[in-house]
């Protein structure tokens, strides 16, 4: 969960989110690999069925914060950072300043840890027009919803309203320019996969 209200529904203090994730990831691995979890009364074992077809299902964490990335590198198979506004600059910085140092600290590499970036992509013959007609209103709606769910209309959570009103670095471009930008991005940021939202709210 990412919003205080989500935790309040279950009587859980959101400040314990990191601690709960630290405990949950090994349990999730246990359930997927051994077919049972200590999730019954007083921690008794319960079956986690049906068992997965794969011998090992990878666990990825969506995160940006250094502590969350450190946890992901220690306990999971990959990470999915997101940036919907400035992917050209934010993902290379994330790689240099956060993920690469965490991998080195825990003696891991991109050979055994997946790096998947997540952003918006909108290919158009007329990017300026499509940004104003489709993309900007959708992003403003999305940001407003995030702010509503968080209980603070003044903060959309991932960008200011002014940033949403500028096409700037958003990947709204011609197919040719999007291709060039993604290839250039991968030179600075060796991600394995790109995950994008092909449909806006």
Helix content: 40-55%
The portion of residues forming beta strands comes to 5-15%
**N-C termini distance:** 20 Å
- Give the topology string: H per helix, E per strand: HHEEEHEHEHHEHE
Major sheet details: 5 strands, parallel
Number of strands: 7
Instruction: Tell me, briefly, the overall form.
Output: globular
Low-confidence stretches: none
| Category by helix and strand content | alpha/beta
**Number of alpha- plus pi-helical segments:** 7
Blueprint of the fold:
Elements: H1 4-8, H2 17-34, E1 36-37, E2 46-47, E3 60-61, H3 66-75, E4 78-79, H4 87-105, E5 114-123, H5 127-150, H6 161-164, E6 171-173, H7 175-188, E7 193-197
Parallel strand pairs: 3-4, 4-5, 5-6, 5-7
Antiparallel strand pairs: 1-2
Task: Describe the protein in words.
The chain has 201 residues and is an alpha/beta fold. Strands 3, 4, 5, 6 and 7 form a five-stranded parallel sheet that branches. It starts with a helix and ends with a strand. The chain has helices at residues 4-8, 17-34, 66-75, 87-105, 127-150, 161-164, 175-188, and strands at 36-37, 46-47, 60-61, 78-79, 114-123, 171-173, 193-197. The chain is built from seven helices and seven strands. The longest helix has 24 residues, at 127-150.
């Amino acid at each position: 969960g990412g919003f205080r209200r989500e935790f309040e529904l279950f009587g859980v203090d959101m400040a314990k989110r990191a601690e709960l994730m630290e405990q949950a990831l090994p349990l999730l691995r246990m359930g997927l690999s051994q077919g049972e979890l200590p999730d019954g009364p007083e921690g008794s074992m319960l079956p986690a069925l049906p068992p997965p077809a794969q011998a090992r299902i990878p666990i990825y964490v969506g995160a940006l914060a250094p502590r969350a990335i450190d946890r992901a590198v220690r306990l999971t198979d990959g990470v999915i950072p997101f940036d919907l506004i400035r992917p050209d600059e934010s993902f290379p910085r994330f790689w240099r300043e956060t993920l690469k140092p965490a991998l080195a600290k825990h003696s891991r590499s991109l050979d055994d840890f997946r790096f998947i970036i997540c952003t918006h992509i909108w290919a158009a013959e007329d990017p300026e027009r499509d940004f104003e007609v489709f993309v900007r209103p959708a992003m403003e709606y999305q940001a407003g919803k995030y702010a509503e769910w968080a209980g603070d209309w003044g903060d959309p959570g991932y960008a200011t309203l002014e940033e949403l009103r500028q096409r700037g670095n958003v990947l709204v471009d011609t197919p040719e320019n999007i291709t060039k930008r993604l290839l250039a991005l991968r030179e600075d940021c060796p991600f394995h996969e790109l995950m994008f939202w092909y449909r806006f709210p």
